[in-house]
Each structure stands twice: as C-alpha cells, then as structure tokens.
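For this section, I looked closely at the sequence of one protein beside the tokens encoding its backbone, which the following lines show:
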Amino acid sequence: MNNDNDFSKGSVLKAILKLASPMILAQLVHLLYNIVDRVYIGMMPQNATPAMTGIGLTLPIISIIIAFTNLFGMGGAPLSAIARGKGDNEEAEAIMGNSFVLLVIFGIILTILGLIFKNPLLGLFGASNLTFPYANEYITIYLIGSIFVMIGLGMNSFINAQGFGKIGMYTVVIGAVLNIILDPIFIFVLDMGVKGAALATIISQFASSIWIMLFLCSKKTILRLKISNFKLQGHRVKRIVTLGFSGFIMALTNSAVHIVNNTSLQFYGGDIFVGIMTVINSIREIITLPVSGFTNAAQPVISYNYGAQAYDRVRTSIKFMTVVCIVYTLLAWGILNIFPEFFIKIFNRNPELIENALPALRIYFLGFFLMPLQFAGQSTFVALGKSRQAIFFSLLRKVIIVIPLTIILPKMFGLGTNGVFLAEPISNFIGGIACYTTMFLTVRPELKK
C-alpha cells in the first residue's frame, strides 16, 4: 500500500489537503450537473423563468434520491475506512460490496416509485399550471437514470475513503464535462428544452458510474469490488444504515424544507418567489461547496486514525477542518454581500426576479458564517461512527428549527415571504452552535484518554 493512502503517517494537514483539493474540485464539477442545467435553462429564449422554476420544483424528489445515496454511501465509506485503519481489509471490502448492492436495489425501487407518484408529488411541492409541464418533463427523464446517480455518488465515497482523491475527481470530471457539452446540444440545437437538460444529466451520470466500476474492479485499488461480497449480511447492513442515517436525514430533511419553502412561497408570493428560492438554493450550493468538500476530505483521515487509535491525529484533523471552514465562510459571506446581483444574474436576468431576490438573498445568508460549525460537528460525528449524535443534529436544524419557522414566521409581523427566508439564518445560529458545542464536549474527552 502506498504511504499516501496510510493516513497514520506523515503530516495530518498534508493528508487532508491532498484529499481536499481533488475532492473540492470534484464536488465543484459535480455541482455543474444541476447548476449548468439551470444556467442553460435560464438562457432559453422563451419561458426561461417558468422552466427554471419547474426544475426547482423537482429538487425535493432529487433530494430523496440523494438521501438514499447518502444512506448507503456515506454510511459504508467511513466504516470501510475504520476497518482499513485496523488492518482488516477483508471486512472493509465486505462493507463496500454490501453498500453497492443496497445502492442498486434502492436505485431500482426509487425509479419505479418515483415514476408512479411524480404527478401528485409535484402538485404537493407547489407546481402551478404554468410550471408543472417543465417539472414533469425534467423529473421523468431524471428518474429513469437515478440508479446511475446513486452508483456514481455512493461508490465514489469508497474511492475517496481509500485516499484516491484524484481518481474520485476524475469520476466527477468525466460526467460533468460530458454534461456541459451535451446540455447546449440537447437544449438548443435539438430544441429539447428541459427534457434535453435531464437527458444530458443521466447520460453523464452513466459515464461516471461506468468509470467507478472499472476502477473498483481493477488491481489499482486497495479495496476491490467482488461478487463474493454482494451477499447482504444483516449485521453489516445494520451498521451501514445506522451510520448513514444522519446523511440520509440531512438529505431527506432538505427535501422536506424544499417542499415547505415552495408551498409557503407559492402561497405568499407566487411563482416568482419559487423561482427566487431556486436561484438562492443554486447560489448556496456553489458557495457551500468548498466547506462540504473540505469536511468530506477530512472524514477519511479522521476515520482511519480513529480506527488506528492515533487520537492526537484525530484531534489535529478536527481543529484544522474547523479553522479552514470558518475562515473560508467569512470570506464567502463578505463577497456575497458585496456582489449579490452578480450571483443572481448567473441564473436569471428577469428584472422582477432580480429586484425581489436582492433583499431575499441578504436575509437568507445572514447567519451563513455559522454554517461551518454544523458541517464540522456533523462530519466529525459521522467519521467517528457516532450515529446517534449525527442523526440528532441532522433532525435538529431542519425538522425542529427550519420547518416550523418557515410555517410560523411568514404569519408574524406581516413578514410574508421574508419570513420564509429568515428561517435559514436562525437555524444556522442555533443548530451550528449546538452541534459543534456538543461535539467538542463529548468527543474531546474521549480523544484525550
């Protein structure tokens, strides 16, 4: 095994940075899958705003797919890394094999259920007569390729967990570059509109999943994907699902928040404000990406050293991850407040939308600088296999804080749509501080022993 893949040796900071660079780039490129779709749709000569709003209405369904991907991918990868840190590569491979089978099975199930229930779901999510056709066209094609999305995202976690950051990056680059090329061809040249955007996305995800399978079945990887490990074992499935449940809850609650946001905004402001939330969500995905990438890069290093009982290196990893994320977030928050219109115009140039989006964006990102506390605390709990804490704080911020506030605040003091946008910064403040403080008070004493 290459020393680069042994996280118990050398500089902890270098190990995290070596993984972080390709992983952040990979996540940036992966973000282009959906972001580029929205950018191109926003450039359509006709009906750009309702088409973009329609795609925004599909986000809850996409979040559900991502939730199950997290359940098995984010649940299995840290366990695999911990087993590898203990020197038990056989168990690490068995965990990876079981995770793969679960991704395939649920990919098929979600495709079938999604196609059956998509129409009533889109109506529940706030689709109007104007936006429903676009949402329906996009999600129908996306669902057909959802199994490739789950394999691509879920199994790439196992590549990164072994220290192959560059290979993980190539996985995403292959798909994203293909998506960027195919999008304008399908949308504009072939005049397929939103259907073309969805088709480009699933073709790209198919290419990424093939690349992953070829690598994990090759001799270049440390842990190989073997048919002998495809038989599901109850105790392994339980451990995978238990640890992955926090990531599952995070994505599932994101879906719930999307639903509540869209329905509330539709009631208090109409289609234009649903479109504004689509733009704001797109901006949030862009500027939170480095934080997500960096915390994901730190997880394999933390898990491996935890399994190897190198607790001083675990503490160093947590400190480094926290400081870097806080510094970046403060800088990003400042830039966003100075140039808000620039970010909005990336996705839509409708004057009415821009006028209403400017104050909404500033309200939504008020507590953004506290967001890395939630990311760092949550990632540490997952990396150490502490599923109960990870699950609780996933539920706290979204279900216990954001959703009730999104329903209550618009009715108070005549806030209306502003109340919907205000729920996010309040949740960042309460949830971020609570999560990180709990992590610090519970994990630090254990790591000192």
